[in-house]
Amino acid sequence: MNSKAIAYFKFIVLPDEVKQSHKIERNPKNTRLDCILSFNPISWKGFDFCLPQKGKTKGMLSFTVRPANYDPKVPRIRRAKYQLQKSVKGKTYNITSIFYEYSPGVKQLAFGNLPDKKTLGEEKKVANPFYTFRNDLFLMIIERDYSELEVLIIPEGDQNQDQHLRNLISGKYDEVLSECRQQSKPFYNYKNLEYERFK
After folding, report:
1. What's the pLDDT tens digit per position in 69-127?
2. Contact between residue 65 and residue 107 where contact means Cβ atoms under 8 Å apart
3. How far apart are CA 99 and CA 79, in angstroms?
4. CA 159 to CA 137: how far, in whole Å?
5. Closest by Cα among 157, 182, 168, 162 to 5
């Protein structure tokens, strides 16, 4: 796999001074992750639905880390501890569950993908805006305190999920990750943020 065949997004918990500059409310109950860097040579559009189109947050991409809900019938090995959520027009969407696979040192390696059902919701069913991207695989590198999250998106990668995970764990994707980090550009212009610090 080469870096031109995937998409890369870097999320962080913004420093307090940056939140202040953009009037982002601090909520100690929830961890908010903002996308600050991206490298997207394949023009992957799976997150477009989550982008505000107007107001002070226009163009910002952010998710909230929440404890995951799971069906007790699901085998324990397939139960996620956390998930990424996004509220769009008053409705909360579960973007992806976070399935931990390996934890080397201070970082955790995990995987996930977008919802795969055609409709979402139990009572008020709505069309799944992520359905087109349901087979795309998310490989995630997460700081243990959830202060940083990197996402590698492999189109149609869900079919070979185990192989991609083994490659991530064994270090075979280290060079690809390094290229993505070096070539990444600011996703949104946050004032007072030292972007180079996070590459």
Report:
1. 766 565 555 567 889 999 988 888 999 989 887 676 768 899 999 999 998 876 667 88
2. no
3. 7
4. 8
5. 157
Is 32 a domain residue? yes
Give the range of the structural domain holding residue 85, as residue numbers without chain letter: 3-190
Q: Is residue 167 within a helix (H) or strand (E), and if so which, with residue range?
A: helix 161-170
**Distance set, CA 173 to CA 79, 109, 111, 138 (Å):** 25, 12, 14, 13
Which run of H or of E encompasses 54? none
- 199 in any annotated domain: no
Half-sphere exposure of 193 (CA within 13 A, CB side): 24
Segments of the chain assigned E as strands? 7-12, 31-39, 62-67, 82-88, 91-102, 107-112, 119-120, 126-127, 137-143, 148-154, 185-186
Written as six digits, the tokens of 9 are 């997004």
Does the residue 48 lie in any domain? yes
Residue 196 lies in a domain: no
Main-chain phi, psi angles of 198, to 5 degrees:
-105, 5
Distances (CA, A) of 92 to 96, 102, 153: 12, 29, 22
Question: What gap in Å lies between CA 112 and CA 114, rounded to an integer?
Answer: 7
Q: What is the pLDDT of residue 142?
A: 94
